[in-house]
Amino acid sequence: MTEPATPAQTGATHRRALAGVAGAVAVAAIMLAAATCRAHPGRIDAPVPGPSATGPAAQTSAPATPTAPASPSQYPAVPVVPAAVLHDLPAATTDTTIPGAPLDTDLQAGTDGAVVHNHSTVAVFDRPGGRPVATLPPVQAGSPTWLPVIDREPGWFRVLLPSRPNHATGWLGATGLGVARTPYQIRVSIHGTRLQLHRDGALIGQWTVAVGARATPTPTGRTFLLASVVDDSQRMSPLILPLGIHSPTLTTYHGGPATTAIHSWPSSDVYGKHVSNGCIRVPLDALHALATVPLGTLVQLDP
């Protein structure tokens, strides 16, 4: 069994000094969380966020213990996919489209927190024992691939994929996957411009945020924390957290695939407004809290 990396574990340290004492302190706190996580590789419960916007600091709890899957001998055989077929399949990443992927039809449903990681490239199937529709690389945008489990069959996990179309899913053979549980859930009210962080069902943080403008709305439905990215070429945020979902109106943005992400913003006048290109802009203290949430954690984007 392995456990999911937190975004802070996978992001490099951002060294650019930001203007303003408050901004510098908040950025330092984000990097301190990153250093703490790196000191404890492999733990599923990252350091708990500090005082939230709505109350006192959350209480720590013991790391969750992943449950071992059944013996592989109990599983139906996963079809062997010839190397030539695998080579011709699209890789399930934020940059690709998977035409044959079944779509998630229960967009507001939660999960039990189970997340899985593939240690090597594996095939993604349209149903248990069915047709391969993609390959899944073990790394996404520089971060290890951790995906939320939304359904199970004996020997199989159905997961959310990071590719287009939005809400694409696929089935993975369970043998050889790392399986763990994240106690967190992120919930965003697009209409209410509010982000909430929950741990084991309890609200531990709440912030007013900025979301997509009318012409470039934030997508809705359930998705997940895909990766953690530090990009020194931009000044908007010390850390960017891409999600496994894309803009519903933009096909590309600045040459990229128009992936929706969570990030901070240099000025606070945007919060509470519908002004972005679809991304969710959060205050630095919210980014600090989210930097400790494991990859693969479910993100609910409510209309």
From TrEMBL:
InterPro entries: LD-transpeptidase, LD_TPept_cat_dom, Transpep_catalytic_dom. The active site is at residues 263, 279. Residues 45-75 are annotated as: Disordered. Keywords: Cell shape, Cell wall biogenesis/degradation, Peptidoglycan synthesis, Transferase. It comes from the Bacteria. Pathway: Cell wall biogenesis; peptidoglycan biosynthesis. It comes from Dactylosporangium darangshiense. Residues 184-302 form the L,D-TPase catalytic domain. This is L,D-TPase catalytic domain-containing protein. Gene3D superfamilies: L,D-transpeptidase catalytic domain-like (2.40.440.10). Residues 51-75 have a biased composition (Low complexity).
